[in-house]
Design a protein that fits this description.
Distance between the termini: 75 Å
Number of strands: 16
CATH class of the largest domain: Mainly Beta
Largest sheet: 8 strands, mixed
CATH topology of the largest domain: Immunoglobulin-like
Strand order of the largest sheet: 7-6-3-4-5-2-1-15
Strand content: 35-45%
Helix content: 10-25%
Radius of gyration: 24 Å
Mean pLDDT: 89
Low-confidence stretches: 1-8, 10-15
Shape: globular
Number of domains: 2
Amino acid sequence: MKKLIIFIPIIYLLISSCSEIIDMNLNSANNNRLVVEGRITDELKIQWLRLSRTSDYFVNQQANAEIGAIVSISNEDTLFNLSDINNNGFYTTNKAIAGVPGKTYVLNILLTDGESYTAESFLKPILPMDSINYIYRKTDHPFDDKLYYHINLFVQEPEPIGDYYLWELFIDGIHESDTLRKKTFISDEYINGSYVANAPIYILEDTKIMKDTSMVKIQMLSISKDEYDFKFAILLETDYSGAGFNGPPANIPSNISNGAVGYFGASAVVEDSVLVFKGQNP
């Protein structure tokens, strides 16, 4: 009985010692930074750019839009102005335009408070895809018996080394790869100069194909090494983080000047589509 009387206070002390109020200073006032998202492509379309502001980690709401800015994108020959006609932070060209592969595009932003920001990106050409197809089968995982739609790519990857690619997925016109964690992007480090055949770029769960037949479209974009590093760094600090041996958090690289965050890119785009039959191979 004496042992029990001694043991209970010890347990109480251990439990109560784990409760402590921590006042976290998020330093919000000094970290209200501009966020830039967007790219120019060689597609003939309305090009767009989004400007917003960083917000507190624990704020569960959409970031504030940056409105009233003067925004332009230019190369050595042409300048395009972008306007925020809906006052929601989305700046668009006033007509459909297309970037030119082989040119460097410069973004200029002037805010209402006089702060200015710049970025530049080279629009690298890209070879067309030969085709895409799909195979409805299991994965190679020994403990997974489910069937998936494997969307496969056929393309020639050119010399020399140093190309970077992003693939976007659309199903019946709906953008499925609408967040970074859903996108596929790679460097050509291990495929440089090779012919890529039957390479699965997206593996879709059975529930993704809802109709008897669905049109799956793949867009393939050229991106820069800096953009590849930017996207990979975000995943390292989010989805790929949390293990016991992770290093300390690091700042995400950006090509925007003056302390802004985000990325402005330039991309050539090619695309192809395949008709997918629900629950069966073609």
